[in-house]
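FW: tagging you since you asked about this chain on Friday. Here's the raw sequence from the shared folder, copied in full. Didn't touch anything.
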Amino acid sequence: MIRLIALLLCLISTPAFVMSQYREYTTTVDGESVKILVKEGDTIVVAELERISVTAPKEFDYSDDRERYAKYRRYAAVVYPYAVQGVRLYHQLKKAAEGKSRREKRKLYREIEKRLEDEFEKPLRNLSRTQGLILTKMMERTLDKSFYDIVKEMKGGWSATYYNEFSKLYGYKLKHKYIYGEDEVMDAVLQDFDLTKDLE
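HL: got it, structure written out here
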C-alpha cells in the first residue's frame, strides 16, 4: 500500500516532459474508459477509484454487546448481497408496475416470485434467524418501510398478515419497522453495512 501511494505521489510530482515519454492508450475496464501509460514495457493504469468509507469498528462498554456486535457484523457480511439485490428488485418492480392495473401487477409479481424462488429460496432458507433479522432490518432501513408494508404492497393484505403471524414463531415482528436508537448494536452494524453506496 505504501509503495502504491509513493508511486502515485511520484506521478503527481513528475514534470510534464517526463510524462510525455510515456505512450498513452485508452482501454475499457468494467465498462469504463481508462487511460494507460506505457514506457519500455512498464504499464501504469490511470483511473479514478471508487469512493469508499472506512470506519473503525464501534466500541461497546459491555462484553455481551461487543460479542453481539462481532457476530452481527459476520452475519451482515453474509446477507448484505441479498439485501442489495432485494432493494434493487423492489425499485425495479415498483417502476415496472407503474400504470398497470391491479390484475396486471399481480401477474407481474407472480412471474417474478417464481423466478426468485428458483434462484434464492435455497440460500435464504439456510440463513439463521439472526441473519434473517439483519437482512430484513437492512432492507427496512434503506426503504424506510416495515417488511409488513413491503409484503402488503407486493402480495396483498392477506399475505402480509399471514407472514406477519408466521414470522412471530421466529421472533420477528414484521409490522415493527427498523427504528434508529432501539438497538444500539443493530444501529452500529447497519451503519457499517450501508446499502446506499451499492444502490447508486
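FW: Confidence is low (pLDDT under 50) at residues 15-19.
HL: agreed, and The first helix runs from residue 2 to 13.
FW: great, closing this out.
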